[in-house]
Amino acid sequence: xxxVTVPDLTQKKAASEKIVMVTAYDAPTAALIDASDVxxxxxxxxxxxxxxxRPNTIGVTMDEMVYxxxxxxxxTKRALLVGDMxxxxxxxxxxxxxTNASRFLKESGAESVKLEVNEQYLDTxxxxxxxxxxxxxxxxxxxxxxxxxxxxKVQGRGEGEAHRLMRLAKDVEERGAFSxxxxxxxxxxxxxxxxxxxxxxxxxxxxxxxxxxxxxxxDLIGLTEEPMPRFVKKYANVREVMxxxxxxxxxxxxxxxxxxxxxxxx
Length: 266
Ligand code: KIV
What we know:
Elements: H1 6-14, E1 19-23, H2 27-34, E2 40-43, H3 47-50, H4 62-73, E3 80-84, H5 94-108, E4 112-116, H6 122-130, E5 135-140, H7 146-149, H8 159-174, E6 179-183, H9 187-196, E7 201-204, E8 212-215, H10 217-220, H11 238-255
Parallel strand pairs: 1-2, 1-8, 2-3, 3-4, 4-5, 5-6, 6-7, 7-8
Helix pairs in contact: 4-5, 5-6, 8-9
This protein binds 3-methyl-2-oxobutanoic acid.
3-methyl-2-oxobutanoic acid binds at residues 23, 42, 44-46, 84, 138, 181, 204, 214, 216.
């Protein structure tokens, strides 16, 4: 088993090898993903929607992120572990960003942090990177800016916006980020960005030309209830399997066939 490191992602881009990233929020899921050949585990603030049942990620706290990252890290031995900085954990000041980003590394076992960024947070990336904290940037559709964007909408449409995102991607690289998530932008723009920067891009709803792809674990295994965004592909229907198991358990308890002799003690 070879540990995936931050420099490995850069090398993968140089070698034209695709990067695979998946979210995890708990220990058993982390163990499962770690046993696969997925490169990166992201403890995303999407846990607000996926685990906490919130309508969006805005309410997720730093303590919750540290808790989930800590339990994921206990079962992550091989994959690179990224902790997602939640809303208002870095926006107030660079000092706040340093304090919270270092909590991820010191308290939770994360090896890097992800930040949803716009032009205002370029300095923050530089300060974290100089302090030795590997930063994954995230541009395009940034769910923490949901209200500003007026909903979950494809970003970077139109020449002006596309130009802005291209500039932003280059600036994120220049400030020292080691990788960049591109969310819900036109595939042609994602291709141009990917070809214009040396750090790897990891796409979600950004088409096939990114250096890697990320999906939310619960979406890709088919545990999330429909409808799901267009960019999700369901690789299994775990929800159906689980519902069937629950229905069978319930039926057997009610008809008295569970527990059977082999399930109890004399
Ligand atoms: O929070 C998250 O899970 C994310 C990924 C979907 C990129 O930001």
